[in-house]
Amino acid sequence: MEVINIDLKDRSYPIYICNNMLDDIGKVVCRHTKSKRIYLVTDTNVYPLYYEKVKAILNNAGFDVSKFVIPAGESSKNLDMLKNILEDIYKSGLLRDGSIIALGGGVVGDIAGFAAATYMRGVDFIQIPTTLLAQVDSSVGGKVGVNLRGGKNIVGAFHQPKMVYIDTSNLRTLNKREILGGLAEIIKYGVIWDKELFEYLEYNMDEILNLNDEMITHIIKKSCVIKGKVVSLDEKEQKLRQILNYGHTVGHAIEALTGYEKYIHGEAVAIGMVYAAKLSLKKSLIDKEYFDRICALIKKSGLPVEYGELHKEDIVELIRHDKKNKNDKIRFVLPVGYGKVDIFEVNKDEILSILD
Ligand SMILES: NC(=O)c1ccc[n+]([C@@H]2O[C@H](COP(=O)([O-])OP(=O)(O)OC[C@H]3O[C@@H](n4cnc5c(N)ncnc54)[C@H](O)[C@@H]3O)[C@@H](O)[C@H]2O)c1
Ligand SMILES: [Zn+2]
C-alpha cells in the first residue's frame, strides 16, 4: 500500500493507494474515526458492486453502518437529494463524533462531502473514490457541493476528508469511457505541472488503457501528489489552484451547450485542453512541437479533440458567463512550456480566432 500525505497543517490527511486491498479498510478507517458510527453514501451502480463487501469489513472492525443510496448520475447532485440525505442521517442518530463515508464517483463524493460539511456544522468525512476521475481529482482537495438548476457546483464548501482510500481494482468494473474521462484529468496534470508524467503517458498509453496495475497506480499516485501539492499551496483557490482549470474554460462551455449529455466531463476537458494549447501556440507561448505533442497524446488516449457541430459564438458567450471570469476579460490557463502553465486574461476575439 502506498500512502501520500496531503499537507494542510491541522487538516492534513493521508491518501492510501492499493490494489485489491479493500479487506484492509477496516483497520485503516479505525485510525481516522472518533467513534464506531458510520453513515455511508453510495449510488445505485456502486451499491451492488461494493457495498456489501465494504459494510461487512467495517462491521468486522466493529463499526455500525447506516447507508443512503442515491440514483447514479449527475442529476442526483442537488439540494433535494442533499435534504433527503441529511434527514436520513439525523434519523439514523449519527452524532458529532460519527463519520460520513462516500463510496462512489465524484457525484457521491461531492454530495456526501457537503452533507458531512453541514450536518451538525461538520462531521468527519472519508472518501472511498471508485472512478478514475474521483481517484485523481474530486476526492482530493476538499471541494464539496451540489448543483443548482442551471448552475454546476454553485452551492458548496471546503471540507477536507480525514482520509482517502483508493483501491485501483475498483476500476475494473468501470466502463472504458469513464476511464478515459479520468485520464483526461491525468493528462492535465502532466501539462500543468509535470513533464515526466506527460512523457510517461506518451510512452505507456497502450498499457495504461489496458489498466496495467503498476502503471495505473503510478499515474494515480503522481496525480494525487500534484493535486495535493497545488491544494496545499492554495487551499481556497486564491490563485495557484486556478491552474487546475486548464482545459476547463472551453470544456465547461462545451458541456453546458450540449446539455451535459453528449460529452462526459473529461471528454469536454480534453477538447478544452486542445483549444487552450492552440491559444498558447497562437500567442507564441509554446512551440509547434509541444502543441503537436499535447494533441497527439490526447488523440492517442482516444479522447476527443474537436467540439464538432457547435457554434463558436455560443461557446464564447457561455465562457463569458462562467462564474470564474471578471469584467470582460476571460481568464485562461495556458501552457507556457513543458509542465508549466500560467493564467492569462484574454479577450473574446482572441478566443474566437482559435475556435475555427
Ligand atoms: N470536488 C471536486 O474537486 C471535483 C473535481 C472534479 C469533479 N467533481 C465532480 O465529480 C463529478 C463527476 O465524477 P465522476 O466522473 O466520478 O462521475 P460519477 O460519480 O457520476 O460516476 C460516473 C459513473 O460511474 C459509476 N461508477 C462509479 N464507480 C464505479 C465502479 N467502480 N464501477 C462501475 N461503475 C462505477 C457511477 O455510478 C456513475 O454512473 C461531477 O459532479 C463533478 O462536478 C468534483
Ligand atoms: Zn475536471
TrEMBL record:
Entry's localization field: Cytoplasm
Binding site for NAD(+): 106-110, 130-131, 143, 152
Any GO CC annotation of this UniProt entry: cytoplasm
Domain 3-dehydroquinate synthase N-terminal: 68-179
Cofactors, names only: NAD(+); Co(2+); Zn(2+)
Residue span, 3-dehydroquinate synthase C-terminal domain: 182-325
UniProt keywords, alphabetically: Amino-acid biosynthesis, Aromatic amino acid biosynthesis, Cobalt, Cytoplasm, Lyase, Metal-binding, NAD, Nucleotide-binding, Zinc
Pathway: Metabolic intermediate biosynthesis; chorismate biosynthesis; chorismate from D-erythrose 4-phosphate and phosphoenolpyruvate: step 2/7
Major site of localization recorded for this protein: cytoplasm
Recorded catalytic activity of this chain's protein: 7-phospho-2-dehydro-3-deoxy-D-arabino-heptonate = 3-dehydroquinate + phosphate
Protein name: 3-dehydroquinate synthase
Source organism of this protein record: Aceticella autotrophica
The organism's taxonomic lineage, starting at the top: Bacteria, Bacillati, Bacillota, Clostridia, Thermoanaerobacterales
